[in-house]
Amino acid sequence: xxxxxxxxxxxxxxxxxxxxxxxxxxxxxxxxxxxxxxxxxxxxxxxxxxxxxxxxxxxxxxxxxxxxxxxxxxxxxxxxxxxxxxxxxxxxxxxxxxxxxxxxxxxxxxxxxxxxxxxxxxxxxxxxxxxxxxxxxxxxxxxxxxxxxxxxxxxxxxxxxxxxxxxxxxxxxxxxxxxxxxxxxxxxxxxxxxxxxxxxxxxxxxxxxxxxxxxxxxxxxxxxxxxxxxxxxxxxxxxxxxxxxxxxxxxxxxxxxxxxxxxxxxxxxxxxxxxxxxxxxxxxxxxxxxxxxxxxxxxxxxxxxxxxxxxxxxxxxxxxxxxxxxxxxxxxxxxxxxxxxxxxxxxxxxxxxxxxxxxxxxxxxxxxxxxxxxxxxxxxxxxxxxxxxxxxxxxxxxxxxxxxxxxxxxxxxxxxxxxxxxxxxxxxxxxxxxxxxxxxxxxxxxxxxxxxxxxxxxxxxxxxxxxxxxxxxxxxxxxxxxxxxxxxxxxxxxxxxxxxxxxxxxxxxxxxxxxxxxxxxxxxxxxxxxxxxxxxxxxxxxxxxxxxxxxxxxxxxxxxxxxxxxxxxxxxxxxxxxxxxxxxxxxxxxxxxxxxxxxxxxxxxxxxxxxxxxxxxxxxx
Length: 621
What we know:
CATH topology of the largest domain: Creatine Amidinohydrolase
Protein name: Aminopeptidase P family protein
Radius of gyration: 25 Å
Strand order of the largest sheet: 4-3-2-1-5-6
Number of helices: 19
Number of domains: 3
GO molecular function: metal ion binding; metalloaminopeptidase activity
CATH architecture of the largest domain: Alpha-Beta Complex
Strand content: 15-25%
Keywords: Aminopeptidase, Hydrolase, Metal-binding, Protease
Domain Creatinase N-terminal: 21-152
Distance between the termini: 41 Å
Largest sheet: 6 strands, mixed
Shape: globular
């Protein structure tokens, strides 16, 4: 009935190939006079999604996670991953060849200090590491009396016989009716922020897409054109893109504001800046160390810090906000139609995790506006719902029976990027499920209702979402929220609601609100909507205040809510939210879906007065 166009479910990892490929790499390193090599899961731009030809870590080891690094020595090889991939790495990698290590508990730098020997040479590809990463590795090598050596070409490329070619995705224009601002205005804002620098080297493709109002198709799920740019403090910027990606009409439009060169010209132009002693800003998060080296060797001064585009891009203008609202309304219709379908079909026992992914994508394609999914859908039943970043494959695919089902998904529309998670129950939930779900919901509501002064960061709000879980001795290990792009990345920085989210929130930023709870091996819960930071007028306020506008609209499963745990204010918020969902979505769906939606968004029965939990929380189930 349904099918997926943008997602696959085959398991591409093959642990059996790792040992032979590792042996071949060691032979290549020995030929080059190297005692070891760093293999990050990264491309030249530190993208979350990378071209197939940049999946060197996956090719070497079999591990397909989105973050990690391998250190290969003559007799040891370690693969470092974070807590999201502790289980996955052992399933995808031959652990007799690659020893799994924790990125947090045993950072690569510490491992190097303990395992490198004096006089050894550790190689690295300077295109795949940022200057900060290189500095940390260099310090570790120095502590071990070893040497960190930049290679001219990546040794894995030399032993990967069928390595895919670089992508040549067509570049398209992102019109002003969607972008809301012309490139000339954006250039003026960037130059105003470039204090003490002669120019900016733009290495983040998201920033390039935003600045020049273009989109591409070089990586999965995010409409990125891979390339670079230099924005001088005075004069015309230069965009370094493979010309084969540009049609004549797109090139002609771009050349109104920017000079276009092939990527190979970038190093030459940096060297020219260097010979004049120029100071150029490099983005600490995405700049390849190689570019800093080129400028420095030519006599220039690199200034490694925050790319000013990051904050400018994060604060969406009113056109982008309106686009996001339109995209979310469109997405709400698809989501409601899916939830109705799921509610009808799940009790039959005929659904699987894969069939739900295919169905939801199909409902989104029926909008006739879907460009792609914004990330591979996370659809987990039972124990798989307890894995926050689970990805279903044909091998892992579970039939959906009675219990908890979690689906986290998003879409790329030309006017906005969406991301929404709903947790639903098939059959009757246990008291424990309802307790945990309601505590997560209370945290979600606390974030949605938050009002805070200008200057507050996501780190200061993060505990709002956790307090009700903490009261029961519980927590979750991911951030509460991440930034969202405007028809760009579904994970955008620098804004975050997390312990590490130190960037102050400003009007126009879009963030997710997604607290969760995960009972390992049993089930998991997450409730996610997207929020736009907005101004809040408060009578008598002594300073400017901000709050959130919720823009995601789909029912929250009332079968999992325990009203006795909620305050009157929380119940009022939930009833109000559901009333909005019902009002805006009902006119856009079929009568049968409309009737289902009316029931799914009914008012929550309030608790009796004696059970009002304003002053205390009941003991956890």
